[in-house]
Amino acid sequence: MYGVQLDQLAVVLGVSEPRARAIVAGWRDRGYTESARLGPGGPWTWLTRAGLAACGLRYTAAPPALARLAHIRAVTAVRLALESAHGFAEGSGYWRSERRLRARMGGRVGLREHVPDGEVHWPDDAPVAWAGECWAIEAELTRKTVGRTANIMRELLARTGDYGCPAAEVRVPGRPPRHARAVYLAAPAARATVVRAREALGSPGARVEIRSLPPGAEMAPPTRSPAPRARSLAPRTRRQAAPPEGQAARPEGQAAPPEGQAAP
Description:
Elements: E1 4-5, H1 6-13, H2 17-29, E2 33-36, E3 44-47, H3 49-54, H4 69-84, H5 86-90, E4 94-97, H6 98-105, E5 118-121, E6 134-140, H7 146-158, E7 181-186, H8 188-200, E8 208-212
Parallel strand pairs: 6-7, 7-8
Antiparallel strand pairs: 1-3, 2-3, 4-5, 5-6
Helix pairs in contact: 1-2, 7-8
């Protein structure tokens, strides 16, 4: 993944958030990760070049894009929900991230292929009804147009080649589709558009599943500092004179003056 927020990392590690924070600090001390508060909620953690190398990955080291934080969190929530399902472990499911798919495609200029948010692969010998299938996963937070969403669905369902394959193999008539189904996990704001887009496909729409985003997929709302209280400009109606020089002030424990009356 491009990065992960602290609460989701704690779920991955199976520990409390304070413990996850301590683990991240150890990784950071070894130069494997960077961590920062990039938006609302807890801090984000991502791998450095050394961390990627330690994991055997050749991705470009970079912090998660600020404009994509909400989307990255939603996709991570989808992945965690899928991987925690009983059928995922039973069927030996394997998640293939968007980052991995884009790495296979390289930096080809002008490439217009749509890349799903992830893929789930099921081995041919898995003891589940969907053995051998590959699913395209899409997390939809915001509403697109029906036309654009339908076009993406058509592209996912019509694709025959792997990502990074020669252009001539992307869609080959007569070959089985790469994605047996496209699974859309939609926020309430996007669900109606996704449903209408599926209906626009006709019979191929039967291969599109629509589910709700799992709990915790959305980022925490931005926090605002409380506004400073305005100082009243109204004159005080009564003011108690200061005690004569040498006279003690109000003894400790004495009740405060009534509201609106100045303290001595």
